[in-house]
Design brief:
The chain is 26% helix and 30% strand. The protein is of the alpha/beta class. The longest helix has 18 residues. The structure holds zinc ion. Zinc ion (ZN) binds next to helix 5.
């Protein structure tokens, strides 16, 4: 849910400068509490900020979010305002704040202003209350899976062109995937497999005594001549959604999010990984494979779960989770028999399941473009995989250590800066409480 909060952040002069002094007291927490609901932790918020200045001059500003210990979480925006008339002017900015700091009780919104000519500075801050988070359930994670984010990743990959292993596009895609993983806080990213360039992102579990590893992956290479959207940029998009969401939570056991290479030429990437894992005695409890994971042109929601004897219990559990979370799939079992990156895991006696759409669709053809992806189907498929992984890797809590998040974000630009835009004129006057 997106709430809109109107906050006017005035630039005010110390004495007789050209900027109108606005009363700070208009922004007490009580005042905010009256006019806005408290925000639930993790909620998406839109801030509307209005700088109110009067007179001519140039001003620079930056707006930051601080945690309840005064530590910078992120810089929302910095910029300049030029006022070239003597009349009262307002500049409005919308910022979409996707994640409210966890468990802090409140966070602080702070604005700094500098008069470019005189060097005079001002600042203003206000506390924003945050509700205690609700009881943690796996459904909370599932509800965050975002269809459009899956599609964005798939479109980005398609944009590189046919990603046949060994091609420049394949190499470019590997770099893109590495950078994407690296931008997610709390993940450790590495290439694996030498020239094959699997991209492996690890979310460390909380239990240091546990050596159990849960892996979810999808191949990013495509068949020769195919844009590889449903096969398998969509699968990679699902894996990134799981990484984005699950990295905001703590699990007892390690989770790995992997983009494999060279599936179309015999699963060379995943073989390289499993071989190395075997020599390192990595204790892989389960591998969940997404391939051909989002093709459902008629909205039939028929999903095939492919499993072997060792993994039949996981497949059974997924069928139960499909019901308990109301995902609405009609589940079939082992209708498909195609080999994908689950194969090396099966061959080494490691539990693994793969989901497959009802039909192959345009896979391996020039027509396999992102418009063929059924995003709702892909979202539900990702939710099902995330449900079983969250359960088995033992979901323990949210990332409640604000500082842990903050350190990694310090100095980083917000991920959704692009959502800043002018607000409608109807929102231009922020609050009547502002009048002096
Ligand atoms: Zn494939």
């Amino acid at each position: 849910m997106a709430l809109v909060l109107l906050i006017a952040i005035p630039a005010f002069a110390q004495n007789n400068g050209p900027i109108r002094i606005k009363p700070l007291m208009a922004y007490t927490q009580d005042d905010l509490g009256v006019t806005t609901p408290w925000f639930t932790v993790g909620e998406e918020i839109n801030f509307v900020m209005a700088h109110e200045v009067k007179g001519t001059g140039s001003y620079r500003y930056r707006i930051e979010v601080l945690d309840n210990a005064g530590v910078l979480i992120y810089k929302i925006k910095s910029g300049a305002i030029d006022i070239d008339t003597a009349t009262f002017q307002t500049e409005n900015i919308i910022y979409e704040l996707n994640e409210v700091p966890w468990g802090a009780g409140y966070f602080t919104l702070k604005a700094f202003y500098v008069d470019v000519k005189t060097g005079n500075t001002w600042s203003h801050q206000t506390k924003i209350h945050v509700q205690d988070p609700p009881e943690l359930e796996i459904g909370e994670l599932l509800s965050q899976v975002n269809e459009s984010k899956i599609l964005v990743t798939a479109s980005d990959l398609q944009g590189f062109g046919t990603r046949e292993v060994g091609s420049q596009a394949n190499d470019d895609a590997a770099t893109y995937l590495y950078d994407r993983f690296a931008a997610i806080p709390r993940l450790t990213v590495a290439y694996q497999g030498g020239a094959l360039q699997n991209v492996v992102a690890t979310l460390a579990g909380t239990d240091e005594a546990s050596d159990k590893v849960y892996i979810v992956g999808a191949h990013y290479d495509s068949a020769p001549g195919s844009p590889g959207a449903t096969d398998n940029a969509c699968g990679v998009g699902i894996v990134f959604e799981l990484a984005r969401i699950m990295s905001k939570y703590r699990f007892k056991h390690d989770l790995k999010f992997v983009a494999w290479n060279a599936e179309e030429s015999g699963s060379g990437g995943s073989y390289a990984y499993v071989n190395e894992a075997q020599s390192n005695y990595e204790n892989i409890e389960l591998y969940v494979n997404f391939d051909s994971a989002g093709y459902d042109p008629n909205g039939r929601l028929v999903l095939d779960i492919m499993f072997n004897a060792l993994s039949s219990g996981v497949a059974d559990r997924m069928s139960q989770l499909n019901n308990s979370y109301g995902l609405g799939f009609t589940i079939t079992n082992n209708v498909h028999s195609c080999w994908s990156d689950h194969k090396p895991f099966w061959e080494h006696g490691i539990r693994s399941v793969m989901t497959h759409s009802e039909e192959h669709g345009p896979a391996h053809t020039a027509n396999d473009t992102v418009d063929k992806i059924s995003t709702l189907y892909a979202k539900k498929n990702g939710q099902l995989g995330m449900a079983v992984l969250a359960e088995l890797a033992a979901l323990e809590g949210r990332v409640s250590s604000v500082g842990e998040n903050l350190l990694q974000r310090f100095g980083q630009e917000p991920r959704n800066e692009k959502s800043i835009k002018e607000i409608a004129d109807t929102l231009a006057r922020p609050r009547t409480a502002l009048s002096p």
